[in-house]
Design brief:
Layout: H1 12-16, E1 43-45, H2 47-71, H3 75-97, E2 98-100, E3 116-120, E4 126-132, E5 143-145, H4 149-154, E6 162-167, E7 170-179
Parallel strand pairs: 1-2, 4-5
Antiparallel strand pairs: 3-4, 3-7, 6-7
Helix pairs in contact: 2-3
């Protein structure tokens, strides 16, 4: 009996017993993408970040047809196609939910979303951070998410103001020396 209604049939577990073992790899199973934003948080993007994401989406869309054709016969291509489709979905959702924020005014006197801020630590060393959306953050380009600890410490700080920030190696005071 495998059905709860008393009808003769088979259960999903039972049907698995009659499949080939190599069928398991036919459809790659990718983990669900982890949301980058806490529930209810706006998905802010700079205009440049939104444009980069649109460009990536267009590029991935162009890559999809040849990969789709190749995936019919190649497991690695099938897995790659699944990853590509997952990234395309992430970009589509991100852009659909995005709130593009215009850049701050050139004469801004406080740190705002989209600003590039230069800070000086207590040793006199300067660091530059650009505060951007979660989906466009790129530490290699000194672009930090507006939800990151460093951005949270700097947002709304005034030119010349000192803010305390706790780095992993200890707390330090950062002075805002330039906002652009």
């Amino acid at each position: 009996m495998g059905c709860s209604e008393g009808k003769v049939g088979y259960s999903k577990d039972m049907s698995k017993a009659f499949t080939r073992e190599d069928d398991a790899d036919d459809e790659p199973v990718l983990p669900a993408p982890v949301p980058l934003l806490p529930r209810g948080t706006k998905n802010l993007l700079t205009p440049a970040g939104a444009e980069r994401l649109r460009g990536e989406l267009a590029r991935l869309g162009d890559e999809r047809p040849p990969l789709f054709t190749k995936a019919a016969a190649d497991r690695d291509a099938k897995r790659e196609l699944a990853q590509l489709d997952q990234r395309i979905r992430q970009l589509q959702v991100s852009l659909a939910q995005a709130e593009v924020v215009p850049p701050p005014q050139a004469d801004a006197t406080s740190v705002q979303f989209g600003a590039t801020v230069t800070v000086r630590d207590s040793r006199g060393e300067e660091s530059v951070y650009r505060i951007v959306g979660v989906d466009e953050a790129d530490f290699a380009r000194n672009e930090v998410s507006w939800l990151s600890p460093i951005a949270k410490a700097l947002l709304n700080a005034k030119l010349g103001q000192r803010v305390t920030f706790k780095f992993p190696k200890g707390a330090t005071e950062l002075e805002v020396v330039r906002i652009s």
